Amino acid sequence: MPSNLNIVKVTKPQEENKNILHKNTNEPNEMEQSQTQEAVTENFTENSNLSANEHAARRGRLNLKTVDHIETYPIVQETEEIAKKIALTRIILAQTKPRIDKVVVSRPVQAVAPVVNFFDKMANSTLSTVERVVPSLKTKTYKRLGEEIALPYTLSKKYGKQLRDTTARNGDNYVYQPVHGRLMKFRKYYNEKFIDTKGKPLIRGQLDPVLLPVNNTFEKVTVKYLPKGKKVPNDSFSCEFNRGLALEYNFMTRAVSAVSHQVVGIAKLPIAYGYHTNSVYNKNLDKQADLKMKNVLRGTWDTITDLEREIWASVTDRSLFRFFGNKSEGGDLPHLVQ
Predict the structure, then answer these.
(1) Is 214 helix (H, G, I), strand (E, B) or coil?
(2) How many Å separate Cα 95 from the centre of its chain?
(3) Angle subtended at Cα 55 by Cα 53 and Cα 61, rounded to the nearest 5 degrees
């Protein structure tokens, strides 16, 4: 019995040691976990700072914090996006950017880097001070800039409309309605006492049989050739003479609107076709392997060939004006032109 007891005492700690070893082999210890987390953190930090390292490699000892500060402005970012869509700007950047990077990291420039960094720090501080005085500088966009530029026109249009409406309302209330009321009373008087014209004017009403077909024809022609406009009601006039005056005013309103629309469309044609030319140029540049001068010349020649083919195709099928008209549609124009 005592020997058995001794065996139990010896074997029990051995089994516990085995369990502990088995547990340690299945679960990583705290040191391994911390090493894994540090490795993940280092990889994330390296990926997030990749662009910063690229900037530092291109600039060397230069800080250029002012340039980075200016690039955070929305209007500068929008300008950069617009510049990237212009074919000529792409070509210029592709030709000059490598040379500029070489100049920046050259020995003469790096030798004066401390002086440049000193003035750069002063300029950046000045820019921060300007932002405190003009906070809108950090939120300014082309859309807001356009609204501010057009503010005088917008206000004049708004208050001009209010002035016209007020003048028309006062003229109707204090001039037209009193005079028209007196005429209606006089007409009712002579209809009862002398001649019954059935509510129509005494002289102008006699012209209705002649003016009715003329007014109907004039209205049909107006609607056919100038479809955009309000319809003149037929039952709100005491005689055809008054209706004819309303039809003439309606014709003039539609004609002015149509002419102004055509003038705006013609004025847009150069901008629209220039935008179309830029789009074709960008497509041909995208087909090249890079934007070296040889490939730029090839893309330029392809663009000229494509544009000539479009023009000749439009001339041969007699759709030249339709071709230019299609280029002035809003979907094919930049936001500022629409």
Answers:
(1) helix
(2) 29
(3) 95
User: Strand, helix or coil at 209?
Assistant: helix
237: its two tokens: 């006039």
CA distances (Å), origin 335, targets 85, 126, 217: 13, 33, 43
| Position 5, amino acid | L
In the DSSP assignment, the letter for residue 233 is: P
Cα separation of 24 and 18, whole Å? 10
Characterise 199 by phi-psi region: left (phi > 0), alpha (psi -120 to 50), beta (else). left
- CA distances to 163, 168, 257, 274, 321 from 158, rounded to whole Å, are 9, 16, 19, 34, 36
Whether residue 210 is predicted with pLDDT greater than 90 in this model: the reply is no
Contact between residue 238 and residue 205 where contact means Cβ atoms under 8 Å apart: yes
- Mutual angle of helices 87-104 and 50-59, in 10-degree steps: 70
Q: Give the residue with greater pLDDT, 160 vs 6.
A: 160
- Domain ranges (residues) in the chain: 2-46, 49-140, 150-199, 208-332
Tokens of 214: 């003329």
- pTM above 0.85? no
Show contacts of 295-303: CB within 8 Å, 24+ apart.
296/91, 296/94, 303/277
Q: Average the pLDDT over 102-130 and give the result.
A: 89
How buried is residue 240: exposed, middle or buried, by Cβ count under 10 Å (0-12/13-18/19+)?
Answer: buried
